[in-house]
Each structure stands twice: as structure tokens, then as C-alpha cells.
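Hi P.,

Sorry for the delay on this. The queue was packed all week, but I finally got your sequence through. Input first:
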Amino acid sequence: MNVTFIAGYFPPEQSADVRLNYDLVCGLAERGIKTTVIVPYPTRGVPEKMNKEFINKPCEQVSENLTIIRVGKPGTYHQGLIRRGLDFAIKTFRQYWVARKMQTDVYVVISTPPFLGYVAALLAKKHKVIFKLQDMFPDSLFHFKKINSNSFAGKILKKAERWVYRRVTTIVAVSDDIKHSLIKKGVPEEKIDVIFDWVDEKKCFPVAREKNWLFDKFNLPVDDFYVCYAGNIGFMQNIGTIVKAAEILSQKEEPIRFVIIGDGSWKAALDEILSKGNHNNIFCFPMQPTDSIAYVYSLGDIGIVSLKPDITQIALPSKTWDILSAGRPAICEIDRYSGLCSIIEGEGCGRCVAPGDAEGMAEAILKLYCDRDSLIKAGNRGRRYIETNLTKDCQVQKYVDRIHSIR
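Then the structure:
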């Protein structure tokens, strides 16, 4: 059986979605499915020297069943919305041009960047398509008022979105909330599968503090109490609430420190905020290599998930599973009505606060700080939840089963 996998991001780029893409294609290949990956040359967070190395790797045979084809040309990752959008459009067209010529049984297309949805719809003319909906577009643009949903451009984008959902064979939603949002848009329920993202529990595991070399690398005192946010620092994330919670707790005598690890479109704004006030209890560090994931998410006594209102209806932060897999309780700044909140509080592996509720976040942190027994038990329950429900092998097998069922 042949599968063609199309994504916008792939190693050596470093982010949660990159890890998931790599896990999935390796899992397909290991199960005997001949998998061809069509991706752009890496740009996001990749040093220029490494970038140049890929000029000579337009086609890479990783194993008997796994081939990687890179299209476009090496370049830089643009932060500006217009330049980045134009760059994505060009790369996406090149991916489509290569993919349409492939002899394949099934296409698996990842929804990010958003232009890949149109690729999925066009390829559905040739073969069946599984469209993995990581987050919903153009809803994200409307939510952050980048485009007015009732404008001419907004109406065109909504029409294009409906066209994509109508054409693809199957939509894989990464949460029940996204499934419900799709149904509200008129997508037939039988066309939607829910397969949660996963975490490689063998690579993301609890690391004892005395064995975590990041404390030396970051020059952090090992005896303090740490609250850690690690991941994208973008517009969807409500990092400002974390900063305000840190300000509240800085007035307490307890040695509670905040560590923010990552980068993104809102990083410059965060740096400006931190430069203007007295934030001695907040420490910022760059994104760390993928192979250090266990150490990153074990750095904090508590892990933070932070989202703006209603984002859970169009996206799900996979870092939540990393936090739980590292045996740390999660404090989630998310919609109280969301499915993710039901999991976190229902499984007893953390606490949820409403978006923007800095006081509530500070209070939740302080309670776990004062009750170390509850903190440890919540972390252990989170790890068990991952081992029982969201391991890499379990979730990848669901994709394999779905591919065989629509062949």
C-alpha cells in the first residue's frame, strides 16, 4: 500500500507539530506502508548552515518504506503575515504539483499551513484524502480580527473552507471540540474521525531534578519552585496572563519562579513587557532541541497551558500531553466548557482557569505549591492517563486503521 503524506513542517524544524508529523510517517513506514513525504525545505528555526546542507537532499531515502521529497528552495522563515503567506502559497503550489503526479492509494494532508487545505481538496480528484485538521482556518483569522468574517475576503475564505471539507474523504479532528465546530458548519458527522494527538511516552518522561541538566544550562537554582511554559509564543497563547500571575505571586514570600521556553510571533511583545517592569521571578529561554523534550517539560514543578477565549473550539495545544507525560500537573488557562478542561479536571491531573484569569492562575499555583502531596499525585495521574490513552503507538495505529478502511 502506498501513502503520500503532505505537511508544511518537518524535521529538522523544531516544534510540536513537527514531532507529530515525523512520528506519524515513521509509524506508517514501520507498519509496512510505503510512505512518501512531500514537504518544503526546512526554514523555521533552522540555522543557515544546516539549511544549505539540504540543497543536496531534494530526495532522501530514509528506509525501505519511507521517502522524503523536499520542494521549493532553502530560505528564511518570514515573520510578517503577508510575506509569510506568499511564501506558504508558493511552497504549497510546488507540493501540489509534485503530489498530483504520485502513484498512491491515499493522500494524508496536514492542515497547517492553511493553504494545504486547498491542496487536499484538489488532490481528492485523483485519490482518497485524509485531512488532519490541526486547527481551523479561516476561523483563526476571524478570531484575531485579521480579517472581518463578513467582508468580501472573509466570505470567500468561508466558501473555500466549505469546499475543502466537502471534497476530502475523511477529516481527522484532533479534539471533540473541533468535531463539534465542524458539525456546526454543516460537515456530516460520519465524515469526521476524532484522533487525539499523542506524545512519545518513551521520549517524554519524568526526569528527576538532580538529573535535569537544564538547571545547569539555564543557571537556575535547583531548590526553588518552578512553573514552566514551553512552546509557541504566539497570538493564540495568552502569555500575558502568565506574566500577570507571576506579578501577583512575586508579592508573596514563597520562592515561586516562572520559566518561559519558546519563540513565536508574540515573543518581541513579551520581551518588551518584561523589560518595562520588575519581573525578577520570570526567566525566558529559547526553544530547545526536540531530543530534550523530557528535560524541558520536567523542568517545572507545574506545567502551564495558556490559550485565549474560544480557541479550544478551533485548536488543541499538544503541549498539554507533553506536560502530563513528564509527570507534571497542568494548570490550563482554557475555556471551562471545553473537552480538554473535562479531561484535566476529570482525570485529576491538573486545574483549569478561565482565559485571562490571572488571579485564578496564581491561586491554583499557590495551592499546589502549598500541597506537595496533591501536586505529586496529580502529576502521577497525568502520566498514567498518557500511558493508558495517548501513547504514540496507540494513536498512530488509529491512522493506519483509518487508511486501510478508506482504501
